[in-house]
Specification:
Number of strands: 0
Distance between the termini: 32 Å
Largest sheet: none
Low-confidence stretches: none
Order of helices and strands: HHHHHHHHHH
Shape: globular
Strand content: under 5%
Length: 179
C-alpha cells in the first residue's frame, strides 16, 4: 500500500514519471500478494497513471483489460472507473466518437460514477462533433467553474459565436491567474 500511496502523492503533484514508477511497483507487489481485487484496482490505477504520463496507447490497452476483467467479475464500480479513464484517453488522442460512446456507456450504467471533468470532456467532444444541444446538457453537471468556462468556450466556438467564446476564454484565463 505504501507504493500506491506514493504513486498517488506524485500523481497529485503532477509528477507523472515518478507516479508511474510507484504505480508499477504497487501493481507488482499486489500481484505478489495474490489478492485479485487489489491487483485489479492497482492495474486500473496503473492505466490512469499511464494516461497522466501522456502514454495514452498504453493507458487504453491496460484499461481495456481492466474493463474486461471488471465486466467478467461483475464489479460495476471498477468497470465504470476503467471506462471513464479510457474515454479520457480517447479524448486526448482526438478519437472523439469513441470517447462519447464510452462516456455514454458510463451514463447508462452508473451516472453517479461521472465526475465534473468527465462532463467537461464529454461536452467538449459533443460540441466538437457538432452535437451542440448534447454539449449544453453537460453544463449543469460541471461543478468546477474553470471546467464550465472551458466547455462554454467550446460550445460557442462550435456555434461560431466567437465573441462569446473569447469572453469565456478570458474569464478562464483570469480564473487561472488567480490560482
Amino acid at each position: 500500500l505504501s507504493y500506491r500511496a506514493m504513486a498517488d502523492i506524485f500523481d497529485r503533484s503532477y509528477n507523472g514519471v515518478d507516479a508511474l514508477e510507484y504505480g508499477k511497483l504497487a501493481h507488482k507487489h499486489f500481484v505478489l500478494h495474490g489478492n485479485k481485487v487489489y491487483t485489479d484496482w492497482a492495474l486500473a490505477d496503473l492505466g490512469r497513471l499511464y494516461h497522466n504520463a501522456n502514454d495514452y496507447t498504453q493507458a487504453i490497452k491496460i484499461l481495456s483489460d481492466v474493463m474486461a476483467m471488471a465486466q467478467e467479475s461483475g464489479i460495476t464500480v471498477l468497470y465504470v472507473e476503467a471506462t471513464r479513464n479510457i474515454a479520457s484517453s480517447y479524448f486526448a488522442i482526438d478519437s472523439l466518437n469513441t470517447c462519447i460512446e464510452l462516456y455514454e456507456r458510463v451514463l447508462e450504467i452508473r451516472p453517479a460514477g461521472m465526475h465534473s471533468n468527465d462532463y467537461m470532456l464529454l461536452g467538449t467532444a459533443y460540441a466538437t462533433t457538432g452535437k451542440i444541444s448534447k454539449a449544453e446538457e453537460c453544463i449543469g453537471n460541471i461543478e468546477n467553474n474553470l471546467e464550465n468556462q472551458h466547455l462554454l468556450y467550446n460550445i460557442y466556438q462550435a456555434k461560431k459565436e466567437y465573441k462569446k467564446a473569447l469572453r469565456e476564454e478570458l474569464k478562464n484565463t483570469n480564473e487561472n491567474d488567480k490560482q
